[in-house]
């Protein structure tokens, strides 16, 4: 009994240790997004609160907390309140299997890849329920678009995961990363390049970010599924979107870019020079690259048309992944060096 | 053991509650959502039985894909249409008979010798997925492939029944090839003109 209690407390402490830096990271990601897009559009972005506007996220949080929560009178009250929580929960739960460095993971389970895929498929419920419970035309339209988009892109995403699974021969996230040992050219993004590309497109679509943000589509359906939300309800959707951004960036870094492995591995002199850098730093750096890419894409690309999104998902991405899985099967069977020998 | 049984009872109670909710809730969307909850609860019970592959696939396929489509349909149909029909009483006798048959079968199976202490606790590094995959692709490879072909036939049939593929005149579609094959000069004309002269 006592032992079980102690284990529970240790697990809780670990969760806090993961969750609090994550939420801070999310808060500053919103700041960096505004700053980066600002500079890309020849503005300077937030610069009033604190030095260089560094306290801006906290000002935003205070503003959102102190705002009134409006529940529309014709809405479905309980589902309306639950929906933002359902949107946020999956993006936090998935962190339980993410390894930050060798052995530094909350739950080192064998089916890690499947777990992440299953949990990320749940994130659509928050949006779907929010859209329906708001009892508003725009919200329902946004929810419908989001649901259709998520289902379409999940298939291509699943096939990309199958490719990773075939290349590594394991569903354990640690094993997947350790299989990529031996320098940049051993990372999976080279033998799985089409899948890497497809996964990235699917990841952007899954997070409902530009250019796939038809679920929000400000110019067409106001704000889509969260049009009726104010204050904390809106803040939770916002948090969920950014948590998902960090999650997909971390997953792509783990699966295709060698996770916490150093890029200078096996290079004489330089490899030794960088051997003291903790693995967590490399994972953070690789994740940041993709986060920047997400923000960059938002500042650059116009929104896709809805039927084009569907066409891209079903008629282009899925065939590419299927063809590459067959090629990959041959490569694994023939033990193609240096990746599968 | 205490925590384990606590978790079991929480999810078992959740499963029963949400399963009854599927039947008794008036609003079809609420019914579908409690079916989702029932799936999640039963997948947690499967996880406790060390069947992690089945549990995660249940969430992935049924909760992530099938129920999303289901909700999609339920949300778009007219919700008030059959809210006032008292169908429960009319079908009650049949439900009781069916329930009795199912309960009888279940009791018969669970009391037979098939279920005598067959549940073995596996060591910690045992991979349920790996052993399942090995059986599925060796011993049961043929039925597995047959099931896949069957599903493919169903997909092809569903697509071929779509009015869009039947090429009806009334249905307007986008011709993507023409949209992609567009050049700048077709859409934009840059005109160079001098600025207005001052009078």
Summarize the structure.
The complex is a heterodimer of chains A (341) and B (199). Chain A is mostly helical and 341 residues long.
Topology:
The complex is a heterodimer of chains A (341) and B (199).
Chain A: H1 2-40, H2 56-66, H3 77-93, H4 112-120, H5 124-133, H6 137-168, H7 173-178, H8 193-206, H9 218-221, H10 231-256, H11 270-273, H12 279-300, H13 306-333
Helix pairs in contact in A: 1-10, 1-12, 2-10, 3-5, 3-10, 5-6, 6-8, 6-13, 8-10, 8-13, 10-12
Chain B: H1 2-24, H2 28-48, H3 52-76, H4 87-111, H5 128-138, H6 141-160, H7 176-180, H8 184-187
Write up what this structure looks like:
The complex is a heterodimer of chains A (341) and B (199). Chain A is mainly α and 341 residues long. Chain A has 13 helices and no strands. In chain A, 45% of the residues are buried. Chain B is mostly helical. Among the domains of chain B are: 1-86, NADH-ubiquinone/plastoquinone oxidoreductase chain 6, subunit NuoJ (Four Helix Bundle (Hemerythrin (Met), subunit A)), CATH 1.20.120; 126-163. Chain B contains eight helices and no strands. The N and C termini of chain B lie far apart (95 Å).
